Amino acid sequence: MNMASHGHTKYKPGEIAWGAEHHILPIGVYVKVILALAVLMGLTIWAATWHIGDFKLGSYTVHGTMINNVIAMTIAVIKASLVVLFFMHVKFSTNLTKFWAVIGFVWLSLMSFILADYHSRPLDTSVAEPWSSDPGSATPRDVGGPTSSDLGRHGVNVRPRQ
Amino acid sequence: MASIAHLEEEHEEHGHAPVNGVMHQYEDIDQQNESYAVGMWSFLVTEIMFFGALFLLYTFYRWRNPESWFFASEELNVTMGGVNTLILLISSFTMVLGVHYTQLKKRTAVLKCLGMTIACAFAFLVIKYFEYKEKFAHHLVPGPHFQWNGEGDKNIAQVFYSMYFTMTGLHAIHVIIGILLIGGLAIFHFKGKPYVTEDYMPTEMIALYWHFVDLVWIFLFPLYYLIPK
User: Fold this and answer.
1) Residue B21 pLDDT level (bands cut at 50, 70, 90)
2) Out of A79, A100, A118, whose CB is closest to B45?
3) Residue A96 and residue B60: Cβ atoms within 8 Å?
4) Most CB contacts within 10 A, which of A22, A67, A75, B64?
């Protein structure tokens, strides 16, 4: 049979890079990525020391530390992207591999919507009965949390059973 | 059916032995490599979900207690954390070079790269050991002996250190597993086993795992060590 028609002899295993593109990346690419990662690491340590004052954005007060956090997380995401794209070769892989590589992070971002629930629920304890009176009901978020009277012998958060 | 006859003929020719590195169930080397990569990534997705839940918990506690969280984080050693970040980044670099030299079939260079990666991983764990030791000495381990003399809420500080030990500890376990995997891989390379020297994908898969360990630390470092005041 004609082996070439099946692609068996077109590339030897060692000569193939990640399906979509048939080449081996030059070391220079990896060197550039590691240098960029080191610079970004230095930048994130430096940026954490910036003192950014609070300021008003319309009626909303933006805390300076929030800007610090956004900078730190942006740098972390850039670093992570460099690692995923170049070190993990996702940039050069097939679409199916790219899909799998992305789906985990999509899941993470979906999961973060749980926080919207915590953010939007009222913190007023009077809105619902405490959970202990009706274990099957939804619990307002600060009911059942530790209060100073709930602290155990060692100051560990212990909620008394009722 | 000419095509079935053709397949049978092919099957007899090849048997179950890989032809030119391609196992008989695959069309070609591209499909084989893709299935390797997709399998490994689906495992990494479960890992992302595993760590993701902890990151969510972290976000929630820190959001609720930003000030106590900052005071608690002041006890962490930024220098040690920074050096560890650099060590892990370098280990990712040496690991990817290991894959590169496997593709080029330069066995000695592969062994050097894997050796350096393992050395970096050990260096990371040694520094982590000294960090943990300091926390134990300062009674910052959650539990009966936890003591908090700094500013902020003591209980929140305890939550902070619970999360710190859970997340960095889980990460450290991944580093230890990484050392075992890379060590095993290095032994196969050293013995010149064809399934790692002729096919670069096993090396690439272990590299993917190692880069993931690096990825987690890229987020852990700013979240624990670099909390702004």
Assistant:
1) confident
2) A100
3) no
4) A75
A13 contacts on B by Cβ (under 8 Å): 20-22, 29, 198-201
Rounded to whole angstroms, the Cα distance separating B203 from B195 reads 10
Distance set, CA A61 to CA A55, B64, B87, B92, B97 (Å): 6, 17, 39, 41, 48
Contacts of A46 (CB under 8 A, 6+ apart): none
Closest Cβ opposite residue B22 in set A8, A30, A79:
A8
Task: Give the number of C-alpha atoms closer than 13 A to the C-alpha of residue B18, restricted to the C-beta side.
Answer: 14
Residue of chain A whose alpha carbon sits nearest to that of B146: A154
Between the alpha carbon of residue B24 and those of residues A9, A111, B7, B80, B226, the distances in Å are 14, 40, 11, 50, 52
pLDDT at B179 over 60: yes
Using CA atoms, how far apart are residues A8 and A25, in angstroms rounded to an integer?
22
Q: Of A2-6, A118-122, B107-111, which range is least confident?
A: A2-6
3-state SS, residue A113: coil
Per DSSP bridges, beta strands A55-57 and A60-62 are antiparallel
Is the Cβ–Cβ distance between A154 and B147 less than 8 Å? no
| B222·A76 Cβ contact <8 A | yes
pTM: 0.81
Q: Residue A90 — very low, low, confident or very high, per pLDDT cuts 50/70/90?
A: very high
pLDDT at B92 over 90: yes
Instruction: Give the residue-averaged pLDDT of B23-35.
Output: 87
How many angstroms separate the CA of residue A123 from the nearest CA in chain B? 12
Residues of chain A with C-beta less than 8 angstroms from the C-beta of B105 = 14
Asked if A68 and A47 count as a contact pair (C-beta separation under 8 A), the reply is: yes
Cα B85 to Cα B64: distance, rounded to the nearest angstrom: 28
Q: Which chain A residue is nearest to residue B215, measuring alpha carbons?
A: A80
The four Cα atoms B144, B157, B127, A35 give a dihedral, to 10 degrees, of 160
pLDDT at A145 over 80: no
Contact assignment for B48 to A79 by CB distance below 8 Å:
no
3-state SS class at A60? strand
